[in-house]
Amino acid sequence: MHLTNSWTSVTARHRRLLRDAALALGCTGLFGLLAALVTRHWHPLERFDQVWSGELHVYARDHRIWTAAVQTLSDIGGTVTMRVLLAIAAGWLWLVGARVLAGWVAACALAGWGAQWALKAAVDRPRPSFNDPVSHADGSSFPSGHAMASAITCAVLVGLLWYRVQRRGRIAACSVAGATVLTIGWTRIALGVHWPSDVVAGWLAAGIVLGAVTALTELWRPRALARDVRRVNWLTRPRVQRVFVPPVGQPLGEDERFDGSVH
Q1: Burial of 103: CB neighbours in 10 Å, binned 0-12, 13-18, 19+
Q2: pLDDT at 212
Q3: Is there a cis peptide before residue 143, judged by omega within 30 degrees of 0?
Q4: b/e map of 27-56 (b: 16 or more CB within 10 Å)?
Q5: Which of 128, 145, 198, 204 is the S-S candidate for 194 at Cβ 3.0 to 4.6 Å?
Q6: Cβ–Cβ contacts within 10 Å for residue 88, how many?
Q7: What is the mean pLDDT of each run of 10 residues along the chain (263 residues)?
Q8: CB burial of residue 241 (10 Å; 0-12, 13-18, 19+)
Q9: Which pLDDT score, from 0 to 100, does residue 183 have?
Q10: What confidence score (pLDDT) does residue 10 get?
Q11: CA 225, CA 259: separation in Å to the nearest integer?
Q12: Are 104 and 159 in contact (CB under 8 A)?
């Protein structure tokens, strides 16, 4: 029985590693392809970017109230906001003793920030330019930092909630996260500070960071993330559930056997 449990654990760990590595490698390949098309000025992509950006700019220029609302959404979902949310999550996890999980959250935030600036410097793509801009942004355009930071933050927060909620909660969390990421990315295009391909690149870069950081964490501390997830679940359960004693003969589940210590 012990050998069976060990084999099951190893197999599950390998599946997680393969999943995370596939995410990182897949997004890396797609990001590299998109970056190559951008740097080589592939005409169909440039045409697509210019048409979308141009039409949204005309609308934003002619509807100032609408533009002000879009700017507010973009500011609320900015990179600073997203990193503050991750910092709060990491700090709370550290305080409750989920140190590896806290480190994972912090590593996602820091890796995202570093990758954003490195990729921007490597590609050095100019931002859209209009004679009558409705908004301004500094630095290079590719990839979108707003799109990248929002995707990383929303994915991390959904991951932290995933084992705390049932199916409906998971659907709701994914829906809210997806809508948030899409909205923030769209605001950057609507304000004329990013091309559509910049936003897509930001999402792909977020996938690279999430997959790579998670895989490296699992290699560094095997199964530690899963243990910390169980720790958080146990510590945040209602007290009545913590002291619940199952009927005689009913085996304890994995969460009920967990005593709050890291083995």
Answers
A1: buried
A2: 94
A3: yes
A4: bbebbeebbeebeeeeeebeeebeeebeeb
A5: 198
A6: 11
A7: 44 77 94 95 92 88 88 90 94 89 94 94 90 84 94 94 84 93 94 93 96 91 79 67 45 42 39
A8: exposed
A9: 94
A10: 55
A11: 16
A12: no
pLDDT computed for residue 164 by the predictor: 80
Tokens representing residue 173 in the block: 């969390």
Token pair belonging to 160:
């932290």
Q: Counting beta carbons within 10 angstroms of the beta carbon of residue 167, is it exposed (0 to 12), middle (13 to 18) or buried (19 or more)?
A: exposed
Helix 167-190 × helix 145-161 angle, to 10°:
170
CA distance 28 to 22: 10
In single-letter form, the type of residue at position 209 comes to V
SS3 track for the chain: CHHHHHHHHHHHHHHHHHHHHHHHHHHHHHHHHHHHHHHCCCHHHHHHHHHHHHHHHHHHHHCHHHHHHHHHHHHHCCHHHHHHHHHHHHHHHHHCCCHHHHHHHHHHHHHHHHHHHHHHHHHCCCCCCCCCCCCCCCCCCCCCHHHHHHHHHHHHHHHHHHHHCCHHHHHHHHHHHHHHHHHHHHHHHHCCCCCHHHHHHHHHHHHHHHHHHHHHHHHHCCCHHHHHHHHHHHHCCCHHHHCCCCCCCCCCCHHHHCCCCCC
What residues contact 96, with CB distance under 8 A and at least 6 apart? 231, 232, 235
